[in-house]
Amino acid sequence: MTAATGATATAGTDPDAQIARWLDTDLDEWTRTVVRRHFDPVSGSPYWLAQAPRLDFDPRDITRYDQLVAFGPFPLDRLRTEDPADLVPLSVPRPLVGRVWDSGGTTGSPCRAFYTPDMLRHRALWRRWSFVREGFAPGRTWLQATPTGPHLIGNGVHEVSELHAGQVYAVDMDPRWVKRLIRSGRLAEVGDYTTHLLEQIADVLEPGRVHYVNTTPALFQALRQRRPDLIAALDGVRLSGTQISADMYRTFTAALQGGICGLTYGNTFGNAACLDVERDGELISYVPNYPQVTMAVVDKADPSIRVAPGAVGQIRLTVLHEDLFLPNILERDQALRHPTDHWPTDGVANVRPLQIASSSPEGLY
Fold first, then answer.
1. What is the torsion angle, in degrees rounded to the nearest 10, for the CA atoms of residue 148, residue 315, residue 217 and residue 246?
2. Cα–Cα distance between 39 and 183 in angstroms, integer?
3. DSSP structure string for 227-260
4. Does the pTM exceed 0.85?
5. Cβ distance 363 to 341 under 8 Å?
6. Is 297 helix (H, G, I), strand (E, B) or coil?
7. Whole-number pLDDT of residue 365
8. For 114-124, b where at least 16 C-beta lie within 10 A, e where not — what string?
9. What is the rounded distance in angstroms from the CA atom of residue 362 to the CA atom of residue 322?
10. Helix 217-226 × helix 246-256 angle, to 10°
11. I need a labelling partner for 241 at 20 to 30 A (CA). Which of 44, 61, 126, 343 fits?
C-alpha cells in the first residue's frame, strides 16, 4: 500500500476514487506523516508542542502505528478547557475558518474540537460511501432527526444534500436537556420532550414526501411505538448510536416492511460504518473511517493491550487527521474485537455502553 495523498487533495475529487486511495494507505506511513506534522517545531500544533517536553520519548522518532500506545490514553478533560484551535497545526492558515463542535456532554461540560473543511469532507465522503453501500438511493428526500446545534451529527443535513443529491428536512433536538431531566428524575418532562420531538417528526413525515430518516435508535423506537404507520411508509432509516440490540434491529426491520435499516457508530471525534449484520442481528460489525480514524478493542484494566479476536473489551479510538491528532481515546463503550479481511484494520462488533448508570444516562441519544 502507498501513503495517502493527503486530505487537502480531496476537494473536487471523485468520491469513490478518494475512498479507494484512503483504503490503500499504509497506516505506519500515515502515522509518521500526522505525528511529524503536529510536532513540527515551527508549524506544529500548539497543544502538542507544549506537551512534547513532558514526554519521555521524542514523538518524531515514532515510525509505526502501534507505537502510539506510548502516549497513553488521551486526557479528554483537556478538550473541555483547551482552546480547540491549539490542537490544529500552525501550518493551517490563521485565522482558522470553520466550526467548533461539541461532544454530547453526558459526563460533564462538553469536549470541543475544531473541524477544518478537510476534516468535514473526510467524514462526509465516508458517510456517502455508507449510503451507497447500504442501498440508499441518491436524489431522495431525508429527515434528519438527530441532535442539532453544536453536535456534529447535525451536519449530516449538509452532507446528504451536497454529496448525495438529496433534499433534507430537520428538527430541533437537544439531547443534553433530556439527559438532565433523567438525572433529576423528572420523567414526566422527559415524556413531554419526547412527544415534542415526535410531533416535529410526524409533521414532516405525514405528507408522504420523505423517503429516508436519519435518527437515533431510541427516538426511532419511540416513533415506532407511537406511529408505526409512518415507519411502514418509509423506504429506509439510518440509525446512529450505541443502543442497538439484535432484538431492536429485528423489530425495526419488521416495522420498515422491506425498507433499509442502515447503521453507524461514532461520535464527535470519529465514526465507523456498518460492515455486516449477521445472524439476523446477533452480530453487528463496524469498520472505522480509515486511515484518519482507527479503533481497537483493549483490555479494560490495561488499555495498552488488545484483547483476543472475538473477545470483549473497551473501545480505544485514535484520531489521525492531518489537522487533529488524538491518540488512544478510551470510549465509554465496549465491543467485540472483529478482525476482517475486508478492511485494513480491525473492526468492532456488538457495541454497548461500557456501563449504564444514572450518572451517565443515554436518554434519546
1. 170
2. 41
3. -HHHHHT-SEEEEESS---HHHHHHHHHHHTT-E
4. yes
5. no
6. strand
7. 56
8. bbbbbbbbbbb
9. 31
10. 50
11. 343
Question: Distance (Å, rounded) from C-alpha 204 to C-alpha 202?
Answer: 5
Q: For the chain, which residues score pLDDT lower than 50?
A: 1-10, 357-361
For residue 358, what pLDDT is reported? 44
C-alpha cell at 24: 490503500
Strand partners, 113: 101
Instruction: For residue 152, give the C-alpha cell.
Output: 456534529
Cα 292 from Cα 262, distance rounded (Å): 22
- Residue 357 has a pLDDT of 44
- Which of 295, 293, 271, 275 lies closest to 285 in space, CA to CA? 275
Residues in the chain: 365
The residue assigned the cell 490503500 is 24
Res 162: pLDDT: 83
C-alpha cell at 54: 513532558
- Read off the C-alpha cell for 271: 465514526
φ/ψ region of 75 (left if φ > 0, alpha if ψ in -120 to 50, else beta) reads: beta
| DSSP class of 309 | T
Residue 359's pLDDT is 46
Pairwise CA distance, residues 289 & 165, whole Å: 22
Residue type, 316: R
What residues does 348 pair with on adjacent strands?
286, 337
Instruction: Collect all residues with Cβ–Cβ distance below 8 Å to 347 and sequence separation of at least 6.
Output: 272, 275, 285, 286, 287, 288, 295, 338, 339, 340
CB atoms within 10 A of CB 168: 20
3-state secondary structure of 360: coil
The CA-based dihedral angle spanning residues 247, 249, 251, 256, taken in that order and rounded to the nearest 10 degrees: 180
Residue type, 362: E
φ, ψ dihedrals at 263, nearest 5°:
-135, 150
For residue 250, the tally of other CB atoms under 10 A from its CB is: 14
3-class SS of residue 275:
strand
Question: What is the pLDDT at residue 163?
Answer: 84
Reading the block at residue 109, the C-alpha cell is 461540560
Query: Would you state the pLDDT for residue 149?
Result: 86
SS3 322: coil
